[in-house]
Write a structure and sequence with these properties.
With 461 residues, the protein is of the alpha+beta class. The protein has helices at residues 8-12, 30-37, 46-57, 78-91, 125-132, 171-185, 195-205, 209-221, 255-265, 269-285, 302-305, 327-343, 424-443, 452-460; strands at 2-3, 40-43, 65-72, 97-102, 105-110, 120-122, 147-154, 157-165, 244-250, 289-296, 313-320, 362-369, 384-388, 400-407, 410-418.
């Protein structure tokens, strides 16, 4: 294979090259460029490299598996469905990608002319229940496929099992995948996927002036946040095992409040829950600062919008709490930080490297949109429902995962924690503080001059 190398002229102009292609139809030369790049070994993105390293360090982990089981509606033509699945696999280049090491450096290689021929497995519903318990397994990351698909036909319907390693998939990718299956089932043409052109664009940004500006911006902004690290709750016990505990509860806030928050302060749901979490971390840990990261879909160009791949960006937000700051000050600060996050999106802010004794920080996943899991009955000819699968053995690979999900009935908070590190009553306390904070901010949405320390004091009571 040829070595993947950035075109120097492209690197110099990367901030305007693909950014110009925000409107549909502006794809001149992309197919040729993507085809050329597919012949080369490409570097992994910053975040792909981190996920690969984690999986190689912990080969039995399923932390980064993304498993789903799809049940299709009545009258599904299994032959057409199989053909649609194979068409989608052939359309998106990442399904022909493998990772390998060249020396000590990981690269991704496109394996051309791969034939996709999904087998239809005829089983009973009872047999499928048994099979489901062993579907989610760790991925072998080097020189192996980074996904698994199985198509089942039972006496009650058709099922598609998919499991993707997170390094090749994000939330938008899953929507693209299912939407493409529906379109392929109906015989509609699928949009081209310029995965390697998009990855080349991302690599090019690392040579741009904005990348260096981003580095300086984050170094200056967060130099005082060492006292807020590590971003986790104080643990109750030294972890000696990994049993998983889960607490889930609806957040008692109506949709109209989020609309008001957007109208009054220019902050959306995601920003609101970032603020709530910063308050709770500060109050729970009894620190006057909080630093955490949030996830953005990261698809800024037309080219990136149809790519099945890991495209999201991880952005930091840091807040200090003192007697002088008001809610209005804090909201303005968060709004400014989020704006700057997007401006410096080319810089993959990783946060400080954790010391060995700090391993197992909290993962914060904000506003995971689960609305795509609804029955897509409006799709012509093909409807389906999606279930999120878990492993046969529940394990907590992190100390704590904090997730806010958006569904039709509102938003709910889910806390997954290592039950050997935290007592259930501690996680319940955190949950109660989270709910109380959200309600306090809702009650005082018009009280712009309220001091943030009044909120902190109320949370701690």
């Amino acid at each position: 294979m040829e070595e993947f190398s950035l075109n120097k002229k492209f690197s110099e102009n990367c901030e305007t090259h693909l950014c110009k292609q925000r409107e549909a139809g502006e794809t001149e030369g992309l197919a040729e460029r993507n085809a050329c790049l597919q012949k080369m070994d490409a570097p992994l993105s910053f975040w792909q490299s981190l996920l690969l390293k984690y999986q190689l360090d912990y080969p039995d982990s399923i932390s980064w598996n993304v498993p789903l089981l799809v049940k299709f509606g009545c009258n599904t033509d299994i032959a057409r469905l199989k053909k649609a699945v194979d068409t989608v696999l052939a359309t998106h280049p990442v399904f022909s990608v493998i990772y390998l090491l060249k020396g000590d450096e990981p690269v991704q290689r496109y394996v051309p002319n791969k034939k996709f021929d999904t087998t239809v497995e005829e089983v009973t519903e009872a047999e499928l229940e048994t099979i489901k318990r062993g579907l989610v397994r760790p991925f072998e990351m080097l020189e192996k496929p980074l996904y698994r698909l199985r198509l089942f036909k039972t006496e009650k319907g058709e099922y598609l099992f998919c499991d993707f390693h997170h390094s090749i998939v994000d939330g938008v990718s899953r929507y693209i995948f299912f939407n493409d299956i529906c379109d392929a089932y109906e015989g509609k043409p699928l949009k081209p996927d310029y995965y390697f052109a998009a990855m080349d664009y991302r690599q090019g940004l690392m040579h741009s002036s904005r990348f260096e500006e981003g580095r300086k911006y984050y170094d200056k902004l967060f130099e005082g946040y060492e006292k807020a690290m590590p971003p986790r709750l104080k643990i109750d016990m030294k972890p000696n095992d990994n049993p998983l505990g889960t607490i889930r509860e609806m957040i008692p806030i109506a949709e109209s409040f989020y609309e008001q928050m957007q109208r009054v302060h220019g902050l959306n749901k995601n920003a609101f829950f970032i603020i709530v979490s910063c308050f709770v971390l500060s109050a729970y840990n009894e620190k006057d600062a909080a630093l955490l990261t949030w996830i953005h879909n990261g698809r800024h160009t037309f080219v990136e919008k149809s790519v099945f791949g890991f495209m999201y960006q991880c952005y930091p937000v840091g807040l200090c709490f003192d007697d002088t700051k008001t809610l209005s000050n804090l909201y303005r600060e968060v709004k400014e930080q989020i704006h700057n996050n997007k401006h410096y999106s080319c810089f993959p802010y990783p946060g400080r490297e954790l010391r060995p004794e700090e391993k197992g920080v909290a993962n914060f996943n904000y506003l995971k949109d689960l609305k795509y899991l609804r029955d897509f009955a409006h799709k012509e000819g093909l409807s389906y429902t999606v279930s999120v699968l878990s492993a046969d053995v529940d394990q907590a690979d992190n100390l704590l995962e904090i997730e806010v999900s958006d569904i039709d009935d509102g938003c709910f908070l889910e806390l997954k924690y290592n039950a050997s590190a935290y007592k259930k009553e501690s996680i319940n306390r955190f949950k109660n503080m989270f709910m109380k904070t959200a309600c306090l901010l809702m009650e005082h949405i018009e009280n712009h001059e309220m001091k943030v320390m009044e909120i902190i004091s109320a949370i701690r009571k």
